Amino acid sequence: MFAPILSSAPETTSHDWHHLCAAAKLSEGEPLGFRVGERRVALYKVDDDVFATDDVCSHAFALLSTGFLEGHVIECPLHGAMFDVRDGKCQSGAYKDIKAFKVEIRDGEVYVEFDGNAALQAADDGGVDVKP
Known about the structure:
There is one protein chain. This protein is mainly β. About 0% of the residues lie in helices and about 35% in strands.
């Protein structure tokens, strides 16, 4: 499934937690990509739970939010690498794991926590710009 690109720019609420969107914007089984500064993050709704990972495949630049989500596994649309959205662990091939982030739903809004050690990915297109 291909994820839509949103056009709004949600706000940052603290130095670690970032507001990305209303939970109602997420559809079961349809990844949604965001850009927070230089970081790309993908949200996934699976069985009414919401998960967040890096949006860029660990093999080469490809947006996982444009990949195929089956259960808890997202497949890279370019390389076929598969990652568990719950923990970012690679499920196929010799690819590196991706970063998974903590997610909270507060008053119907999705917040994601980024730690200072997560790798930043330069981004040129797509996703939602979230202003810090």
